[in-house]
Write a structure and sequence with these properties.
This protein is of the alpha+beta class and 84 residues long. It has a domain at 26-82. It has helices spanning 5-11, 40-52, and strands spanning 29-38, 65-66, 73-82. It has a three-stranded antiparallel β-sheet with strand order 1-3-2. It is globular, with a radius of gyration of 24 Å.
């Protein structure tokens, strides 16, 4: 017959450490870069749309950076995710 779960709880010591969640360390995280390339209007509009969708704050994106192509800019968002 299976033992009752509460029996195990009473068998543990009151001084036993309780496991708590710990913030991930840098080694637990992976860096991601999200890049938007296009016209100034297109990049700005996309960043604002992603903000409305609560994907990222506008201030989290880099300033608009000109590319080698005339009339084209880019902006980069860096994010960290848990690795593994």
């Amino acid at each position: 017959m299976p033992k009752n779960f509460l029996m195990f709880a009473s068998e543990t010591s009151a001084s036993a450490p309780i496991e708590t969640s710990v913030e991930p360390t840098l080694s637990d995280r992976e860096s991601l870069k999200i890049l938007v390339i296009g016209s100034r209007r297109g990049v700005t509009s996309t960043i604002q749309n992603l903000h409305r969708l609560r994907f990222a704050e506008v201030r989290e994106w880099s300033p608009l950076i000109p590319t080698a192509n005339p009339g084209e800019v880019m902006s980069i968002l860096s994010r960290y995710i848990l690795a593994g």
